[in-house]
Design a protein that fits this description.
single chain; alpha/beta; eight-stranded mixed beta sheet; 16 strands; 26% helix
Length: 340
């Protein structure tokens, strides 16, 4: 007898929490924590992606959350990905910071969003108590919240590689202005980055998943305010290209965008419209811009063995843009379907 969607969701959450407990017990071991998240019974997967959101419901965060709940129900999502900057302006002050509930638990209340949330840290998160945001104590408050520096989520047909991108940006170390960054567990920078790139490269090479997706906070390619991140272009992008990563998904720029690489198959997706957006900022780069929206919203991703379907939504839940990539098997050429 087939399991109900709610039963599968409960099983998925239980599986993830069990793996997290095991990971905590072996936190000192080298390499990356790997979590298993089962796909649906038909082998497919549905999820939402949102970034740059934690503002206690202001700047339309609550409106975006409401529409995420509606789309999440329609798509019967399996989980949510956050691309970072989870708590503004300066992360969490500790494990008892009320901002955790005011910006997360009390905002994303829809039934469809009561699924695991896999989160990376953003630069604003690093301005607070990073150890607190990574603490398993927060999962006792809200078990959905699964935040680590860098880790892997395997969902059968896809491997998601979550990458801690904030330490890559040199200016946070050398020109922090009036901000304090919590580099506990990270410094010295060069050693941390070298080890992270080595671990990611090894994990990506071992992956046998049909789809390989990297997730980070910072942009690699963007036409909005922050633009391209030079350190990621120089250090991370070669690893992604060498390991045939299909998509890089990020936040940081407060917009929605899709950019196609001109020298590789990789596609860049920015989903950073979870609350405050930046209007009127546009600076083109050398890659191919497919879509750009300087407003609030979020993204959905539906995957099966043969196809990946991306959709961007605005703050009212309207579909702004859809794009699909087909991958019928590892030997056949890729085809692209773009719909404005």
């Amino acid at each position: 007898m087939a399991r109900s969607s709610s039963a599968r969701a409960a099983m998925a959450t239980a599986t993830v929490l069990t793996l997290l407990a095991a990971a905590a017990a072996t936190a000192a071991a080298p390499g990356l924590v790997r979590l298993e998240h089962p796909a649906k019974s038909d082998g497919s997967l549905s999820l939402l992606v949102v970034g740059d959101w934690g503002r206690k419901g202001t700047y339309n965060q609550s409106r975006v959350a409401e529409q995420m709940g509606k789309v999440g129900e329609k798509l019967n999502i399996d989980f949510v990905i956050s691309t970072g900057d989870n708590f503004y302006e300066d992360g969490l002050t500790g494990i008892d910071d009320q901002a955790f509930e005011e910006s997360f638990t009390d905002i994303y209340t829809a039934k469809s969003l009561q699924k695991p949330w896999y989160l990376v840290l953003g630069n604003h998160d690093y301005r607070g108590d990073v150890i607190a945001q990574l603490s398993p104590v927060l999962r006792k408050i809200d078990q959905r919240f699964i935040c680590m520096r860098s880790f892997i989520v395997n969902a059968e047909i896809v491997d998601f590689f979550f990458i801690d991108t904030t330490p890559f940006q040199l200016k946070y170390w050398t020109r922090p202005k009036d901000h304090h960054y919590d580099w506990r567990g990270v410094a010295p920078r060069q050693k941390y980055i070298a080890n992270l790139l080595k671990d990611m490269d090894e994990a990506m090479k071992k992956s046998t998943a049909k789809w390989k997706i990297a997730v980070g906070h910072h942009t690699i390619r963007s036409v909005s305010d922050h633009g391209d991140t030079q350190e990621l272009l120089q250090l991370l992008l070669p690893v992604l290209k060498d390991n045939s990563i299909d998509f890089y998904i990020n936040g940081h720029d407060h917009c929605l965008e899709h950019i196609s690489s001109r020298d590789s198959p990789i596609q860049y997706f920015t989903s950073g419209g979870g609350s405050k957006a930046w209007r009127g900022v546009f600076q083109p780069n050398s890659d191919k811009l497919q879509f750009f929206y300087d407003g609030q919203g979020f993204m959905s991703l539906q995957l099966n063995q043969d196809q990946a379907d991306f959709t961007f939504y605005d703050v009212s839940g309207n579909i702004l843009y859809q794009w699909s990539k087909s991958k019928l098997n590892h030997l056949q050429p890729t085809t692209y379907i773009t719909e404005a």
